[in-house]
Amino acid sequence: MSKRILMVLTNHSELPNGKKTGVWLSEFGEAFLAFQKEGYDVTVASPQGGEIPIDPTSLEGDVPEEMLATKEHLQNTEHINDQNPEDFDGIFLPGGHGTMFDLPDNTKLQELIRSIYEADKPVAAVCHGPAGLVGVKLSNGDPLVKGKKVSAFTDAEEQDTGLQDDMPFLLASKLEELGAHHEAAANWSEKVVRDGLLITGQNPQSTEAVAHAFIDTLKE
Prior knowledge:
Layout: E1 4-8, H1 25-37, E2 41-46, H2 65-69, E3 78-79, E4 90-93, H3 99-102, H4 107-118, E5 123-126, E6 149-150, H5 155-161, H6 171-177, E7 181-182, E8 192-195, E9 198-201, H7 207-219
Parallel strand pairs: 1-2, 1-4, 2-3, 4-5, 5-9, 6-7
Antiparallel strand pairs: 8-9
Domain DJ-1/PfpI: 26-215
Keywords: Glutamine amidotransferase, Lyase, Stress response, Transferase
Pfam family, one: DJ-1_PfpI
């Protein structure tokens, strides 16, 4: 039977400085295409449902046609409140700065992640996607990331973007405050960390490796 994957994306479209943001297209597209190639059934959902904003910076340069074609799956996403954790074999959170604003406090997302993780199914997130993990507590009350090895967009990379003052918090620091063991590579280089059923990656350059580690975990 085909695996069923839930991808949860941000609806948040603007930073406090007025800069447009949203999902980073390659972090959605590379993972989505990897799941498609495995024949997986992918549900794309978001806190509000409907259309997903795309960070315009992620559309700059030579974006492959195959990647641009994945935008059609962002036009009418399902509402996260309509999702049932029992319907999925794993959950994947792409990044983009928008995730920092509408994923950390979403109680439905926290419930989905906790239920999927505690059902021994994998949870994966890349770049700013781990912002969706910061509010997740296990049934014993501990933060999901407590004592776990993780990787996420680093404070140094945020300084590189110049957007550190527009963020509600610095993601890597927040994860460490919650008891995670954050592992970082050099800025903008691939880094993937797997700790049991939790798979995380540092930046856009890590998406494909995170997706394939997630797929490997699903196959175990």
